[in-house]
Amino acid sequence: MTDTALSRRRFLQFSGLAMASGLAGCTSSMNTDEFREQTRPYFRNPALEGRPEYIDNRGPISIYGQTPPSGLLPDSSRYAAIYGPVNDGGFQVPAVPYQQIDARFYRQEVESPFAERPGTIIVDTGNRFLYLILANGRAMRYGVGIGRQGFAWSGRGVIQWKQAWPKWTPPDEMVKRQPELVKYSGANGGMAGGLNNPLGARALYIFQNGQDTLYRLHGSPEWKSIGKAVSSGCVRMLNQDVMDLYDRVKGKAPILVI
């Protein structure tokens, strides 16, 4: 065997040893459990969505022509910030476990499906969405839960006024059904704003022709109700979402409930 062949063989042997040594060093210094946890993706849970994730003969299931997302959650770090804990008005609003909510109902900017002027609010009760129309054909979309009272009124109105950490006064008929609520009746001054208040962190009050419709857009700590029809209330939003909407709505904004 020539000196050249020996030199090449020796070079390859030493190279292999060096590479193995380097890999061994990398592996021994790595905390695999920590690595797996940090790189673990968030997957949506179809069981929480009330619909299958498959493509049938009609093509992908869609909402207003948009194919619902699948696989990895969209911008999980961004939504962790959006739905994280908030200190507001002396109250510590807890984080929302957004990974357990259908991603369709996350706050997101979308193409507007309505030909309404910017600043208009549209509540789509059937699909459980609330839209705030933006400029250039865009809209901010929020997921909502619709209570029994939320199906009782539809049409056009205005946001007559809005309130942070509003007081809640149960209707007299509710007090009759649930006598334990008498301490929060109108005669007793209602329930002060707070984390346990059914109106949540914000409420927007809808009037039509100068009259209170008794229809409200309001916050709720009950995140499991988003995207669903619920037993009470009007239009429920996540507290973090209703706070965002509250800040965006200016003056007597027009509203359409369909």
Automatic annotation (TrEMBL):
Domain L,D-TPase catalytic stretches: 119-258
InterPro entries in UniProt: LD-transpeptidase (IPR050979), LD_TPept_cat_dom (IPR005490), TAT_signal (IPR006311), Transpep_catalytic_dom (IPR038063)
Pfam families for this protein: YkuD
CDD domains: YkuD_like (cd16913)
Keyword match Nucleotide-binding: no
Active site residues per record: 218 (proton donor/acceptor), 234 (nucleophile)
Alphabetized UniProt keyword annotations: Cell shape, Cell wall biogenesis/degradation, Glycosyltransferase, Hydrolase, Peptidoglycan synthesis, Transferase
Pathway the protein acts in: Cell wall biogenesis; peptidoglycan biosynthesis
Recorded superkingdom: Bacteria
Gene3D superfamilies associated with the record: L,D-transpeptidase catalytic domain-like
Similarity remark: Belongs to the YkuD family.
Protein name, entry field: L,D-transpeptidase
Biological source species: Shinella sedimenti
Lineage of the organism: Bacteria, Pseudomonadati, Pseudomonadota, Alphaproteobacteria, Hyphomicrobiales
